[in-house]
Amino acid sequence: MCVTVLVMEIHPDALRVIRERSGFTQTGLAAAAGIKQAHVSNMEAGRRKASPDVIVALASALAVPVTAIIKNPPEKAAA
Predict the structure, then answer these.
(1) What is the spatial distance between Cα 79 and Cα 76, in angstroms, rounded to a whole number?
(2) How far apart, in Å, are the Cα atoms of 66 and each of 10, 15, 44, 58, 70?
(3) 51: nearest Cα among 37, 33, 65
(4) How far is it, in rounded angstroms, from Cα 6 to Cα 20?
(5) Dihedral of the CA atoms 15, 20, 25, 26 (nearest 10)?
(6) pTM for the complete prediction?
């Protein structure tokens, strides 16, 4: 049996750029995603990782796909 595990890690620069382009402050994004502002700050600085639930919440708040804010997103499967 083979099990594939997808590890998602926030891309700090992508998170910051998309947040700013979306017009969010760190505080506003944190409120929209249900987390603390310090968590957003630490993720943007690369000092803190995020759980998959937080990554999904951030992407949802920013109205972008999860792959826009993670490092090394998986490549799309050939159709």
Answers:
(1) 9
(2) 9, 10, 15, 8, 7
(3) 33
(4) 27
(5) 20
(6) 0.84
Tokens of 19: 């947040």
Beta carbons of 35 and 43 less than 8 angstroms apart: no
Quickly list DSSP for 18-76.
Answer: HHHHTT--HHHHHHHHTS-HHHHHHHHTTS----HHHHHHHHHHHTS-GGGTBSSPPPP
Q: How far is CA 55 from CA 3, 20, 66, 74, in A?
A: 22, 17, 7, 15
**For residues 2 and 47, what is the distance between their CA atoms, to the nearest angstrom?**
32
User: Above pLDDT 70, what percent of the chain?
Assistant: 84
